[in-house]
Specification:
Helix content is 40%, strand content 23%. By secondary structure, it is α+β, with helices and mostly antiparallel strands. Strands 1-2-3-4 form a 4-stranded antiparallel beta sheet, with helices on one face. It is elongated. Residues 20-28 have low confidence and may be disordered.
Amino acid sequence: MKRRNIIILTTIAGAALAVAGVAGVSAAIGLGDDDEQPIRGDALIAATEAALAHTGGGTVTETEVGDEDSMYEVEVTLDSGAQVDVQLDENFVVVGSTADVENEPGDD
């Protein structure tokens, strides 16, 4: 009986950690201004794949639907620490990208 209880508790704890991890990743990808809507579902998968293919890798750190320049915008942080905003159309084709430069000399 003890072994059965340990297995049940371990399973519940593992499931709770998995749910917390997914929620954390979802929150991280949707960070930004309150009026920005993160990309969700299948669109998130397609946008992520297109953006990472364009940048040659990195980590998606933010997404947005309905940016003024495109249908989707995906922010990718490269291994070097640089950030690139990749703009995609409704078919997930890259229509532009810009380096997200912060704290340049003279900026306050």
